[in-house]
Amino acid sequence: MLALPVYAQNTKQTYRIAINKTSYPFHFINEEGKADGMMVDLWRLWGEKQAVELEFVPLNWQQTIQQVANGVVDIHAGLTKNPARAELLDFTSVLLRQNRHLFLHRSIAEIKSILDLKPYAIGVVDGSSHEFSLKNKYPNLTVKSFANRNDLYQAALTGEILIMAGVEKLSKNFSDYALLSQKFPAFARISYETGEYGAGVAKGQKPLLEFIQQGMDKISPKEKAAIKSKWLIVDSSENVITLSYSNNQMPFSGTSRAGNAQGFFIELWQMWAEYSGLDIEFVLGNSTEFNQTNINMADIHITSVTNEKSITDSTLGPVIYSINYGLFFANDIDKVLHISEIENKNIGVIHTPSFVKNIQDKVSNSSVIIFDDYQSMFAAAEKGELDVIAGQVDIVENYLIEYKLQSIFLKFYGYVFKRDVNATLNKTDLKLSELILEGFENLPLQDLVTLEKKWHLDESSGYFNRQLSILTLSEQEALWVKNHNVVKFGITRNWIPVEFIDKFDEVKGINPDIFDLLTKRLNLKIDYVVHENFNELYQALIAGEIDVIGSVVATQERKKQVLFTDSYWSMPWVILHPRELGTQLRLEDFNGKTLAIAKGYYLISIIRKQFPLIALRLVDDNEEGLLAIQKGIVDGFIDSLSSGTELLKRESLVSLSMSILEEVDKNGNHLAVNQSLPVLASILNKAVLSLSDLDSQQVYEKWFDINIETGLDKNVVLRLALQVGALIFIIIIVIMVWNRRLYQEIKNRKKLEQKMEYMATHDDLTGLANRVLLKDRLNKAITFHQRQKLLVAVLFIDLDGFKDINDTYGHDIGDELLIEIANRLKGCVRESDTVVRFGGDEFVLLLTGLHNQNEAGYVADKVLKIIQQPIQLPEVNAYIGCSIGIAMYPDDGDSDNELLKVADSLMYDVKAAGKNHYAFNRKSDTKV
What we know:
38% of the residues are buried. Helices cover 38% and strands 27% of the residues. The chain is α/β, with parallel strands linked by helices. The protein has 34 helices and 42 strands.
């Protein structure tokens, strides 16, 4: 007879399970006096699986632990494991990960960091895991214990405490739940820990633990999910879809002071629901909850922009958006051209694994500091601990304003990291993915673009705006794109400027820029495959190792091997040769000489057939061809105009000249596609035909490097080059490459233009901004602050007593006084604010990024005090004052003229009332 497992030999008919009376929603006593909650439902199902009876024993929290530890009760229904409890109990495997929060009173809802809670007492239940964790993890905080949760809640209602420690949500079983939830709204909470939640038994009860585990293993994931969904999801009818969102990630998602979900993603999903005919509601989640889909706290989780977690394919819904991550530099932004050049800096990176890895792969000589959230990263930046901030572009810009760092950290345009945003779905409703996809496909694209513009998202992140340029494809073509989203483009390593790998190991050149334009219009992604030379590249295309290559001439022989699109640009052939051979040479001038040419070029067969007296030396790339000229091995090197021009620019090549090959037709550059991909060839051809002259011109001017230092207009040069032809084009390029005589003159002219621009926007005497610059900055501030829902203040300042000093001591002394006043005013504001001399003895301060009008009042107080300080002048110690009128955007106006008019009027009111004071519009009581 087989021996039974230990746990089978020790089973009982009935097991007693300790529950707490008030641990909602995990275990508690309901209004009917019965055991209830998520763990109670789980244990009842466990009892059915194990064929045993259960008796739930309701106790206070301390008793639940003591009676299980003493063996009076068999099992603790569920609690968080910590070192103190581990000394009394043995624990089962983790049943769930419990998110723990500090619930804040509405009056202190603006606090976002646990470090700012030091002045307050935090209420906890005596003996709870919160008490242990907070005292150990944050010893500087004050923790106040209460006998049970009801006592804790009563203390919160009476104002005895303003902060409570709790788990997922407030207990709806509490008699005054409605009033409690009003005083402690869902959005006012700080997540401080995630704990491992399991069942407990007395020490040394291994057989019982094994018996418990056996029963838990019999409960299917679907059954567990249904129980968790019942208790952790927001209560809703069957027809309502619940979405959880992440807080503090504006402009994408956040919570208003009224407790409502807001942001671009919120309105996006509201639009989806309206067009889908569905009712939705939002529940506040956090970055941890977002990806723990087994908890099933909502039907759809709006993917957190902050964090990425491991998400199985079965819960990853369709892509609904695409966002850009970038870098913001505190200083030296002009000195760094590439991310890899950042050295000896502290780089703060938001915790998104793929983004962090991308940064770490590119930066080797700096410290990468990873932050779990933007608040902690910006707290470090505010203290001056970071040189670079790395995160989602729109969110970073939002936080820069909130922390008043927008004048310190500037965006670096040399790096972009893109990431798709998916909807994360509840595992129990996989059909929801189809519903989401169908709903978004039906949304009018123009409405989505309008929504994008409303929230002023970073132009480079304009996901829906970019879709406006996506081409219409046939059903067969659209299906191909859907099933083959990534296309392998082949390029050569060193064909500058056509296509090459730069010193930072990144793909650059004319072709990659053209490829990028084409694939954006087709919603395709590029996977670059690099080969050493054109011959290898072409052979790889034929073999099917790559899908597409560029800059291929469509000869009859090649048409038998690959598929071609229409030509997307044309470029003549040229010969680089020693200057002493002459100028504007023809191929026949090289009879009896040797020319180098890259392997695989179709021109090889033409020259051999039409110019048999020319010896050809086949090289791998233009670098080898150039070296052959310099060493005298060949008399010239044949290449395209674009590549030849790039080579000719090098200072070391002053002995070389360039001749255009007029007897050879211009190169018609086509995309060549593998023969097995006719649908792709058709798709790419549509994209090629959609390229405008402007598209091509912008790419060409970038790589031909035509600049103002030549004294010529870039746009005119390129337009004429396209119209007149290659000969004039090459003449213009040679002029630009070799003509250095105008350089100093143009440089001086630039300096003069800069000086004139400065004089047009600044006051001659004080160096402050003038009215012209004020209006420009004020209008920009109004536009920017509309989306951020922040305030702008205009302080109109008129000096009191200046006229007497100016009339008595003369204009020179008056000018000295104005210069000193200007310097004092600059010391009263931040770098991001603007100090303006409006005219005569009138000044204006433009304050941006304000949260309430009190901040403007604080600056006004500062100005009054510093202006009243004695001013030492050459002939007198001057004592003056000032009168200030303050207009607030948006309450006092939404245009520059309105705000200046209100501020000016208020300033005169102050003068009439006795001077040396400031005034707001009484109608304005602005707060955000």
